[in-house]
Specification:
Number of helices: 9
Largest sheet: none
Radius of gyration: 18 Å
Shape: elongated
Length: 161
């Protein structure tokens, strides 16, 4: 673990800047790190350490969760650490959200049915997609998710109907 390595400090600065951009574009409450972390199911200490450049020992799963929360392209953090510094600088939020194919509630439910460590990542993705939907799309997604969960419950119910 290398504290205050210039590359990690620069990554932290870029992540803080990105969160501020997301605050203006997506959710004003995200100016508070606690709200941002809670909304994306992240660990506060990990996010704080990343934004300050205090640690350098994160796993790929953490990178994926951070990239989703900060609406970065998949693999952006590892690319940045490998020397591709432009990958994080000036990445428009619109471009990032368009670069990821929309995820339907059914696709997410099929992808992760069991509660695992990855389930938090899926929930964060759902939350992110949900925040970008119109009211009508949210209503439809909510109904679809309820239907999917009911189907899953029906299949796993051992008592005959």
């Amino acid at each position: 673990m290398v504290a205050n390595d210039p590359v990690w400090v620069r990554l932290g600065d870029l992540l803080q800047s990105r969160r501020k951009s997301l605050t203006r574009a997506v959710n004003a409450d995200w100016r508070f790190r606690r709200r941002f972390v809670d909304d994306h199911l992240l660990d506060y200490r990990t996010t704080s350490d990343l934004e300050r450049g205090d640690r350098d020992n994160y796993d790929a799963r953490t990178y994926a969760r951070i990239e989703r929360a900060y609406m970065l392209k998949e693999g952006a953090i590892e690319s940045f650490l490998a020397g591709e510094t432009e990958v994080l600088e000036e990445q428009p939020i619109v471009e990032v959200s368009e670069s990821r194919a929309p995820v339907t509630a059914e696709e997410l439910a099929v992808e992760r049915v069991a509660v695992t460590q990855d389930f938090e990542v899926v929930l964060a993705a759902v939350r992110s997609q949900y925040a970008q939907m119109t009211d009508e799309e949210r209503d439809a997604a909510r109904r679809q998710m309820i239907e999917i969960l009911n189907e899953i419950d029906d299949r796993s119910d051992p008592t005959p109907s």
